Amino acid sequence: MNGRRLSLAFLQATSMNKRAIALFFILFIPAPSPAGLHDPFPMGHSMTHFGTVVRHRGIGGRQPWNPSCFYHDSLRFGLSTATAWYYDPMDNLKETSINQLILGGFYDYSFVTVKASFAHLSALDLYFEQTGFLSLGTDALKYVLISFELCGYHIGLSHEDESEKMLYAGESFWIPWKLVGLSVTRKNIRLDGASEPGFRPPTLWQIGIHTKKTQAGALGVLIELTEEKNPEFRLYIGEEYWFHNNFALGIGIATRPFMISAGFAVNIVSANAYASMVNHPVLGWSKGFGIEWSK
């Protein structure tokens, strides 16, 4: 699994129990933003189908934690928020909740789109992650939309002085065709990494094919590959079907590990609400919910 592995120096600064818990968080809890690793799935509406269904005039294109080049519509600005509760409760601990909250917005003017989001993850009241995401994109070029991303992380144990801060960059491209769009993203390009190598996520490539909404729904396939000595490969497949533009159902599957997802979305005038569930073969179910408004 593409895990963010805690460094030995950080582990040595904590008690044995906290070491084990912190290591669990780093290996199995998803990163707060798509600017980081999808480990194992993204936040928001993308949780329904693992980010495979991206329509630049749909919810996925507008999400503030997705690259700006995924958006291309006449709406000027929008706000979104989402939350997730990860995995089945660990009833052997006093605090059983592993949850995350993310919020952000986008603004589009002429040929420039700006997106920004902030996420906070809390795990068992022992481990935390804070992530800031900024993306600047343009559709000034004729055949391709491009954007550049910055993602800052602050991670550590909640009741300890030890923590790490990191700054990473990314670049994304969207190539629109008649019935499909091709996405290419390179993320986790290190600008100011953690002092310990164990904190540093590998540079990641994502290549996707995303269909427009048709009578058969919207389909997507996403390939993920790490830039490492021994690269890791993951495959995601998803579909979303809208009923009269008011109600949608979505499903997805992912490999390494094998996971299934499902969810729905409801459109009410200028707003959308959505809910999702993802099953991990070992850790159980995760639940997510979110709303967005745009104008």
Describe the structure.
It is a single chain. This protein is mostly beta strands and 295 residues long. It has a single domain, classed as Porin, CATH 2.40.160.40. The protein has helices at residues 8-12, 16-28, 59-62, and strands spanning 77-85, 98-109, 112-123, 127-138, 145-157, 163-176, 180-192, 204-211, 218-226, 233-243, 247-254, 259-268, 271-280, 284-294. The chain has a 14-stranded antiparallel barrel with strand order 1-2-3-4-5-6-7-8-9-10-11-12-13-14. The N and C termini lie far apart (39 Å).
Identify the notable features of this structure and list them briefly.
52% strand, 295 residues, single chain, 3 helices, mainly beta, 7% helix
Number of helical elements: 3
Quick one: biggest sheet? 14 strands, antiparallel, barrel
Mean pLDDT: 84
Task: Write down the CATH class.
Answer: Mainly Beta
Q: How many domain units? A: 1
Distance between the termini: 39 Å
What amount of the residues lies in strands?
A: over 45%
- What's the alpha carbon Rg, rounded to whole Å? 18 Å
This entry's quaternary arrangement is single chain
Largest sheet: spatial strand order: 1-2-3-4-5-6-7-8-9-10-11-12-13-14
CATH evolutionary superfamily: monomeric porin ompg
Instruction: From the 3D structure, determine the CATH topology.
Output: Porin
SSE series? HHHEEEEEEEEEEEEEE
Architecture, CATH level 2? Beta Barrel
The unreliable regions are 1-16, 26-38
* Number of DSSP-assigned strands: 14
The proportion of residues forming helix, as a percent range, comes to under 10%
SSE class: mainly beta
Overall 3D shape? globular
